Amino acid sequence: MTRLADPIEMEVLSNQLLAIAEDMGSILIRSSFSSNIKERRDCSTALFDAAGRLIAQADHIPIHLGAMIGAVETILARYDLADMAPGDAFVCNDPYLAGGSHLPDISIITPVHHEGRVRYFCGNIAHHADVGGRTPGSTSGTSRSIFEEGIRLPVIRIARGGEIDEDLIDLITANCRDPEERALDLRTQIGANRRGARMLLDLTERAGSETLGRAINDLLTYTRRRLASRIAALPDGAYTFRRDLDDDGYGGDTVPIVCTARVDGETLVLDFTGSGPEARGAVNLPDSALKASVYYSVKAVLDPALLPNQGMIDPIRIVSEPGTIVDPRPPAAVAARAVTSNRLCGAVFGALYQALPPQEGMASCNDSTSATSVSGWHPRRRTTYVYPESMGGGAGAFADRDGQDAVHVHTVNSTNLPIEALELEYPLLMDEYALVPDSAGAGTHRGGLGMARQIRFLEDGTVFSARSDAHIVPAPGVAGGLPSGVTRIVRNPGPDGEELHSKASGLVMKAGETVRVETLGGGGYGPPAGRPLPLLARDLREGKVTRAAAERDYGAAMVASALALDLG
Questions:
Q1: For the whole prediction, is pTM greater than 0.90?
Q2: CA proximity to 29, closest of 7, 59, 56
Q3: Which whole-number Å values give the CA distances from 167 to 152, 275, 403, in the listed order?
């Protein structure tokens, strides 16, 4: 908490560092082969110093933050800086061996040398559509062990002195369902870091190594001080909130995710004692994903403009119980960890909002991500394809406005795969892509609506899997607002449609069959009777709320008045 050496210098150079991280991300997205990276942007980039401190992360996927930190920490624990040569690069993905998040998220970390010493690390992480395992997509919610989920990579050199290890590339890709796609994306990741290293060295030469190091220290100090002041402004005390998963992947009782936020001066402790036991399925949350979820949540609630770097991390302490769903022991399965990550963020949000004035709070969001994986034979490419997709839902309502419709919330921040790209890339058709009426919680301000995607399979033998939640537990409202609807996944929707379990895995489909996913909305804020009639009339006119649901939640008299106002 020392004085800043030069605030103006810090501001200028910190923006240049962030620009380097963002440029790395842009290169990675533009140059990648797979639709999951080039279209859905399921990747992240970051810069670290030689001590492993996070300097800057581009604005991509929040859950990736913890995995890149874990990768750098593992590298520094295993290798001396003196043993790293210019042009080296490291690859890893394993949650237990290398601080990863889940196996499809592969990190590439590249040391950056200046004047003969490692000064920095450039890092990126990308979600690969498949890394092997029992089920195409490597994200089955019903895996019982990490050994079922794909190839496990501890920290390994994938490049030495600038030369890529082709044998290692072959080993990794031979364990995946689309080797060409994996090889090309891995090479792109290596190249993005090389580009970042060149930009970082150019900045070091222009600014001077000592000046840049001083600016980095100022940046981390400023961020730490700023978050500490936000925490100190909260009333001291303990605030507890609970969100529940539908089950642990294999049915049964709901699984609690409990967060107690303890505020004591400038110290914030997030305690997850009381959360459910380690899951039988793959919804366990590994350490790096737990940390990333917490860091994101604190930033989002207390200071959304706070820069993501080591200074944001230092004032926060996390407490968890080993052997629970938020602190699993190896070899517990973790492929569907995003389900629990988003629910945990909802618990952290709910706890922290209790320490804020009511007008600054919001109802619960969908706090989930409904992800699907589709795999089959690609007739044009003459290989097996794997198409992953994660869907958003409704955001919670605020004290002064409705929640947003059809958005990702919390730690999943990828875009959707556009219909044009989907139908061009894969033997699939999109029958419908729409909002889901009546999926939001009613209130003075309505929650956001969920979304629907209905896909038709064009080839026999197509394999479909899902990892989802909130099919039973909705998003609760606040201050009298009502809860949302729930998520549904239906095979061949219609009179004879089959409702699928949230973790349906490995279903083999025939040509012409369809699957429809409808996600939940967000919770409402304030009693429904307080909703302004023009807003209710607009919802009815736009089809976001049906008349039957509106009469159920707002009352027949209020609906009649809204319709009369609209007609007038």
A1: yes
A2: 59
A3: 16, 43, 50
